[in-house]
CRP-like cAMP-binding protein (Chryseobacterium rhizosphaerae), 227 residues
Amino acid sequence: MISKFIFNNQYLFDELPDSDKELLQGVMQNRNYRKNDAIFTDGTIPSGIFYLKAGKVKKYKVDNEGREQIIYIYNSGEFFGYSAILSNECYGDTTQALENSIISFISKEDFLKLLDTSVVFSRLLLRSLSHEFSVMANLMTVLSQRTVRERVALSLLILHNKYTGSGTEDPVFITLSRADLANMAGTANETLARILHDFKKDQLILMEGRKIQVLNFKMLTQIANFM
């Protein structure tokens, strides 16, 4: 199932008691980020955690040759950056706004204080970390063992889920840049272009400029080979 490749911690806020939500909202500092702005970078010391109120953020690593590998894409309603604080380490990756975004910052002091006072928040965070580890392990297995065609198909299915708006039946368009899609699938731009062309020719996807719409979920699922 596609769910084993998708991490989402929106429930962290939704399932908090009202009193804990009020405490959290009281210490949130809203900040505006423009597209391509970095939120934090690999190797820096964490000073707090982040809550994505609106927009999308990518999480990625850069190898020794400067190649970028997108690990995850956060949607509005998700927390990020907390694992570094909990492990008392520097950030192990970089996060960057994929579009204009509104992000709330919660200082390290306020975050740890909330963990001490809220049993529910601590339990939800532990659940989130466990799920995140499982998803990352599954994604790393895909990157190391699957063909490029399989990885591109899976990336499109993951992105369709990420770009699906709640409560709407409108067509879903993936607006991630080709470079970011290539980095997510772990391939070169030229290889990605050829595979997308094949998918379009086989009527698996529709392309309108940089926008991509998934048309045939069944065939893409078979190609992704994760059933």
In short: The beta strands are 29-33, 38-40, 48-54, 57-62, 68-74, 79-80, 94-97, 101-107, 205-208, 211-214. Residues 146-224 form a domain with the Arc Repressor Mutant, subunit A fold (CATH 1.10.10.10).
